[in-house]
Write a structure and sequence with these properties.
By secondary structure, the protein is mostly helical. It is built from 7 helices and 3 strands; from the N terminus they run βααβααααβα.
């Protein structure tokens, strides 16, 4: 299983062609995509989403939130902040979902590199 962040999904459904959308196309072909819950919420927050996009998103499996998710997310965010690094809350929650499920993240957002270096996030 492989997770994708919001920007990759939006680029994909808007028909943009880049390395991440090509990888996402392969992942979808093998039915290997899972979504962190925050990605689902971010994507569905767009009131102008086409119905077919919403239908596709609703078909995808969502990573469960485990018992200590919120504590662990707070700890990894604090770790990055202590290093004076950017740690947006949504990115932290996405990273924590992937870390605790040992699922690599497909992203084009360079802010996730801090979660790789200090928290054990794996990128695809």
């Amino acid at each position: 299983m492989i997770a994708a962040d919001t920007s990759v999904l939006i680029d994909y459904f808007q028909g943009k062609k880049n390395n991440q959308t090509e990888k996402l196309d392969e992942i979808l072909a093998f039915h290997s995509l899972v979504l962190p819950p925050v990605v689902l919420a971010e994507v569905l927050s767009d009131p102008s989403l086409p119905k077919k996009f919403i239908e596709k998103i609703n078909e995808l499996p969502i990573l469960d939130i485990l018992d200590d998710f919120w504590y662990q997310a707070g700890h990894i965010r604090a770790k990055l902040i202590a290093h004076k690094l950017k740690a947006r809350l949504a990115d932290t929650l996405i990273a924590q979902s992937c870390i605790e499920h040992k699922v690599p993240l497909l992203t084009s957002d360079s802010d996730f590199r801090h979660f790789v270096k200090y928290c054990g996030l794996k990128l695809y």
